[in-house]
Amino acid sequence: MTIKMKSVLVVFVIFLSGCSPRQPTPVVSPQNMMGSGDAGMSPTATPGSMMPVKPEASHMMEPIRGENALPATETMGGQPLAYREEHGVKVFDVTAKPVLWPILDGVTVTAWTYNGTVPGPMIRVTEGDEVQIIVKNELPEPTTIHWHGIEVPNSMDGVPGVTQDPIQPGETFTYEFTAKPAGTFMYHSHFDGDVQVSAGLYAPFIIDPKEPVSKPDVDVTLMISEWLVRGGMTYAAMPMSGMEPNYFTINGKAFPMTETINVKKGQRVRLRLIAIGQFIHPMHLHGMPFEIVATDGHTVPDAAQLTKDTVSVAPGERYDIEFVATEPGQWMLHCHILHHTTNDNVEPGGLMLMVNVTE
């Protein structure tokens, strides 16, 4: 081989090596970032994991802050919020603050809440009402509120840096809009939402129709979410390696602390299912089929209503389902991803509740 040919080969090899794909930089697993795992082992990347590539994103893996958090004084979330009327406007007061919230006997989470409960208080008004919500921020970080599915003016939409400045700790902000349309909605944080919503900043918002309609005998709203509790500390549960939830709640409680829905045989029952976490939940009712009468707050025409016994509720979705309680007994409503019916991997627990039908 001539010297000239050798030189060409060397140049070609150098060119190929420069074009070869770079090896990925190992990513620290969340267990190592939170101080657990084997100290002597080098961090390895988890295939398919959604780990942060910027140091500032590590806030997602830090415990929920609870400075000065006191034990909750209320035991049930999602209860109707009282209002005062001023010049024809319904005025509600909402305070965002941390509390210590029991999701189960012996299990308490550090929760960021509206008015000290998980979910926050239900705002329930009539279509066409003028409403004003005065929000005070007692959290250690800024926040905003988004009115999920409600038709509000753009300036009231709650997107920080787009429609408003974040509400700083100690500050207040007033949201004003006309309540429309009728249906099942919710309100939740839209600042650092992957953490703040997971920590408990969510609540139902029900707008009843202005024109009279046939009402169900029993009307219950159920907000579905997830939690991650490790070593006595609360983290934001997320669909990423090492941050998956180990507790699952309906209206802020895990079975067997979830509520029991008591109905009489022959009564018509409406359940408003709201998924606010980051995981999908196929909710299954034992004993009786149901009709899907509304989706995302909008009524489904009679001819289009599906009769089912399981409906998958994705994050942000709302399904109003109705059934007639025809069979006496204790009937279970639960998520059919069966890991979601455990408490820290122990069954039964999580997303389960009982519908108690009596004669």
Largest sheet: 8 strands, mixed
Number of strands: 23
Instruction: Give the name of the CATH architecture of the largest domain.
Output: Sandwich
Radius of gyration, whole Å:
25 Å
Shape: globular
Q: How many domain modules?
A: 2
Q: Figure out the total of helices.
A: 3
Beta-strand residue fraction:
35-45%
Q: What is the class of the largest domain in the CATH system?
A: Mainly Beta
Helix content class: under 10%
CATH superfamily descriptor of the largest domain: Cupredoxins -  blue copper proteins
- Separation of the first and last Cα atoms: 98 Å
**Which class of secondary structure composition applies to the elements?**
mainly beta
Keywords:
39% strand, 2 domains, single chain, 23 strands, 6-stranded mixed sheet, Immunoglobulin-like, 8-stranded mixed sheet, mainly beta, 359 residues
